[in-house]
Amino acid sequence: MTLSLNCKDAGDPVCTHTMYGETEEELLQNAKKHGIEVHGYTEESWNGEIARNSDHFRKLIKTS
Ligand SMILES: [Zn+2]
Questions:
Q1: 44 within some domain
Q2: How far is the CA of 1 from the centre of ligand 1 (A)?
Q3: 59 lies in which domain range?
Q4: What is the pTM of this model?
Q5: Does any domain span residue 33?
Q6: Is position 63 within any domain?
Q7: From the CA of 30, how far away is ligand 1's center (Å)?
């Protein structure tokens, strides 16, 4: 089972990057790496964002 999350679905207007993971934990790790590398998040601002929107993010995760 692979979980995926599209950056665009997560609210970015232009980025079409898709993050994958075997588990939700792994997916969120990959999303964090992408957020920091591409979208200028810091470890701290990312954690804050996830903490505020965790329900929202979980709903966007697709399973295949
Ligand atoms: Zn992105």
A1: yes
A2: 22
A3: 1-22+40-64
A4: 0.88
A5: no
A6: yes
A7: 11
